[in-house]
């Protein structure tokens, strides 16, 4: 079973190389990409079952012993995120094929899109599986290098301008992360996270806190938490719809994953719990207030993306098993729902020629299916019962009530307010774009490609499946959270006997 662990990284990289060589055969190139991501989904599902039944699955790449070589670890948290990210990347790829993104001259030559998209996928999966900080850094750099290309597809003025901002912020966060990696190695003599779990505990409190804050700053920028989130609403909306969707669904969640992993494995004890809770509350409220002020669907969804990152940081700040379980559940939910909403925005733009609410209207009457595809994930994001968004928020709010204290209660209030304002935002989009009299941009309509609609529908269904399977899913997230709190399952899987 250990031989399967590298495949979620290796298969997309091999697919990227092959699709680059097949640049002159678009149909074959598309087939290779779909097969690669379908294989990733199947392998990830097997790894999740194995991790749930028998504990973390570990492989030392090249046969080099830990910590000399690279170690990849598929525990329940990593495997669960692999499954949902593989499903999302596959659906977005199918959507982009239906849209013809990889073939239009405005977006990019066909020889560029597929290899870059597969490298992005490999970067995401490598970050989830990385068992040491430097390989985690490599995973981030792989996905960021690919995202630099994808966000500027077509080379339009708006995409180059916003892409430049995105590149500058990403490079800054990477420099901070690399600095943190160097400092951690200087202080402990290792970057293997299983070893660091023991060695960081032996450091003086001030040194340990400094390393923790440096890593949090780097990951906070990548996750787009308050106050370092302003780059995201300006960068994402200008990219093509599939690119924006996969960015919104996955890239910020890799930052959240890194925060969860390091805060539970490397820095347990809650030394920064208070500041994390403050950041979580401000991220929720400021993000959703930004969404209230928007008139463009893509920018509006970008601000809701920022806002709901706050729920995940809320769970990390509380740091109980129930809170971490709720945070993991919410990550899975949000990856699916937020990606779906950006794909719907792409369908609206394809159907009506604009995502500006001031130029839209009557979509529910003209395109009823499009109305359903928006309404279901929008209500899910807002946390309307019995959707998975409600269940995830309820789990987090209950964890906050159980912890108690003024700060936890303030976060419960902020979470409730954010949910209500998200409902207001979703209702406003529905009333203006879908319910009022038709005011479509340019007065022209086009028929939506079936593959685009099918891929979006698949993600809407996946969101509903998360609701129907919430009980078993919460069992997995609770088990994963308990393992994160104990740390020993991870450490002993990587270092038999727990040797430092």
Descriptive report:
With 500 residues, the protein is mainly α. It has one domain. The protein has 20 helices and 2 strands. A two-stranded antiparallel sheet has the order 1-2. The two termini are 26 Å apart. The model is unreliable at 102-110 (pLDDT under 50).
- Between the first and last Cα atoms, what is the distance in angstroms? 26 Å
Task: Average the pLDDT over all residues and give the rounded result.
Answer: 91
Number of domains: 1
As a percent range, the share of helical residues equals over 70%
Q: Per DSSP, what share of the residues sits in E-state strands of 2 or more residues?
A: under 5%
User: What strand line-up does the widest sheet have?
Assistant: 1-2
Structural class comes to: mainly alpha
The major β-sheet equals: 2 strands, antiparallel
**What's the total helix number?**
20
Number of strands: 2
Write the H/E string, N to C. Answer: HHEEHHHHHHHHHHHHHHHHHH
Q: Using the CA coordinates, give the radius of gyration.
A: 21 Å
* Poorly predicted segments: 102-110
The rough form would be described as globular
């Amino acid at each position: 079973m250990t031989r399967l662990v590298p495949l979620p990284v290796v298969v997309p990289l091999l697919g990227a190389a092959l699709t680059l060589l097949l640049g002159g055969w678009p149909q074959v190139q598309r087939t290779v990409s779909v097969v690669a991501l379908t294989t990733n989904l199947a392998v990830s599902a097997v790894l999740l079952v194995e991790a749930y039944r028998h504990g973390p699955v570990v492989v030392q790449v090249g046969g080099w012993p830990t910590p000399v070589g690279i170690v990849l670890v598929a525990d329940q948290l990593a495997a669960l995120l692999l499954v949902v990210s593989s499903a999302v990347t596959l659906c977005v790829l199918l959507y982009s094929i239906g849209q013809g993104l990889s073939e239009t001259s405005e977006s990019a030559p066909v020889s560029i899109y597929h290899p870059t998209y597969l490298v992005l996928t490999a970067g995401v999966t490598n970050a989830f599986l990385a068992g040491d900080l430097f390989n985690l850094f490599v995973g981030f750099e792989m996905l960021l290098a690919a995202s630099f290309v994808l966000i500027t597809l077509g080379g339009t003025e708006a995409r180059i301008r916003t892409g430049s901002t995105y590149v500058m912020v990403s490079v800054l966060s990477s420099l901070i992360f690399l600095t943190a990696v160097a400092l951690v190695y200087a202080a402990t003599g290792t970057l293997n996270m299983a070893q660091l779990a023991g060695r960081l505990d032996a450091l003086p409190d001030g040194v340990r806190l400094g390393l923790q804050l440096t890593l949090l700053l780097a990951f906070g920028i990548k996750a787009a938490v308050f106050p370092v989130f302003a780059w995201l609403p300006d960068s994402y909306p200008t990219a093509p719809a599939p690119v924006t969707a996969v960015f919104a669904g996955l890239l910020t969640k890799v930052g959240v994953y890194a925060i969860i992993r390091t805060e539970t494995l490397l820095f347990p004890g809650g030394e920064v719990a208070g500041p994390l809770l403050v950041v979580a509350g401000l991220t929720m409220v400021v993000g959703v207030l930004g969404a209230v002020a928007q008139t463009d669907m893509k920018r509006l969804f970008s601000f809701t993306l920022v806002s709901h990152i706050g729920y995940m940081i809320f769970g990390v700040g509380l740091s109980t098993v129930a809170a971490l379980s709720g945070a993991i559940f919410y990550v899975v939910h949000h990856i699916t729902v937020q990606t779906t909403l950006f794909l719907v925005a792409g369908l609206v733009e394809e159907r009506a020629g604009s995502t500006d609410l001031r130029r839209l209207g009557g979509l529910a009457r003209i395109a009823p299916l499009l109305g359903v595809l928006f309404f279901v994930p929008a209500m899910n994001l807002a946390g309307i019962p019995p959707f998975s968004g409600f269940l995830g928020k309820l789990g987090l709010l209950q964890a906050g009530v159980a912890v108690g204290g003024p700060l936890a209660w303030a976060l419960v209030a902020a979470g409730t307010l954010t949910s209500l304002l998200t409902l207001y935002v979703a209702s406003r989009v529905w009333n203006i774009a879908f319910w009022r009299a038709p005011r479509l941009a340019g007065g022209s309509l086009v028929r939506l490609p079936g593959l685009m609609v099918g891929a979006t529908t698949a993600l809407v269904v996946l969101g509903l499946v998360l609701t129907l399977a919430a009980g078993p899913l919460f069992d997995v997230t609770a088990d994963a959270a308990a393992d994160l709190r104990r740390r020993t399952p991870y450490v002993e899987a990587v270092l038999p006997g727990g040797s430092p």
